[in-house]
Amino acid sequence: MSLCLATAGGVKALALSAFTLAWTHSIAKVEWQEDWRATPAGLELVQARVKGTGPGMEPPPEARLIDGWFQWQPNRAPVPEVVLGNSGTAGEWRLCHAGKCRTLSEIVGHPIGANVTKMSICEQQEK
């Protein structure tokens, strides 16, 4: 499976089925990470972590503090796409895989700016 990132400048396909989405909250300046998996049913959120708390960022009751991060496994059905907004006040979304994190602008090869990025499973091409 491949992950597709759709931006105002086009679509970028990435040959990966598991990745971490990371960002810094625009107001609280707290780091947040989510582990995702690309499945035939869609994008599945596997685990979430937040490095502290802040307004609108309270971890759920089942979260456990592990190595300075509140961690939990969300119980949500896979989704067809994830829409990533960009306020421009907290830096960019980062996508991490195999121990390396890159901003979405680095991945797609042009500045994202305040534009929306849509993350989804790439459509399978007919053979």
What does this structure look like?
The chain has 127 residues and is mainly beta. The protein has one domain. The protein is built from 1 helix and 11 strands, in the order E-E-E-E-E-E-E-E-E-E-H-E. It has one helix spanning 104-108; strands at 3-7, 10-14, 18-24, 31-39, 42-50, 64-66, 69-72, 81-84, 94-97, 100-103, 117-121. A 7-stranded antiparallel sheet has the order 6-7-5-4-3-9-10. The chain has a 4-stranded antiparallel sheet with strand order 2-1-11-8, with no helix packed on it. A hairpin with a 2-residue loop joins strand 4 and strand 5. The longest helix is centred in the last third of the chain and has 5 residues, at 104-108.
What can be said about this structure in brief?
By secondary structure, the chain is mostly beta strands. The chain has one helix spanning 104-108; strands at residues 3-7, 10-14, 18-24, 31-39, 42-50, 64-66, 69-72, 81-84, 94-97, 100-103, 117-121.
Shape: globular
The secondary-structure element order is EEEEEEEEEEHE
Query: What is the number of independent domains?
Result: 1
Poorly predicted sequence stretches spanning 5 or more consecutive residues: none
Strand content of the residues, in percent?
A: over 45%
The number of helices is 1
- State the end-to-end CA separation: 15 Å
Q: Please provide the count of β strands.
A: 11
- Quote the average pLDDT: 88
Rg over CA atoms, rounded to whole Å, is 15 Å
Largest sheet: 7 strands, antiparallel
* Class by alpha and beta content: mainly beta
